[in-house]
Amino acid sequence: MKRLINNLPVPSFTEEDSLAAQGYCHIAGVDEVGRGALAGPVVAAAVILPHQVKAPWVDLVRDSKVLRPARREFLFHHIQGVAIAIGVAAVSHKVIDARGIVGATMLAMKRAVGQLSPPAESLLIDYVHLSGVKLPQKSLVGGDQRCFSIACASIVAKVSRDRMMVDFDKTYPGYRLGRHKGYGTREHLDCLCRLGPSPIHRRSFRPVGNVLSR
Question: Comparing C-alpha atoms, which of 150, 140, 157 is closest to residue 72?
Answer without folding.
Answer: 157
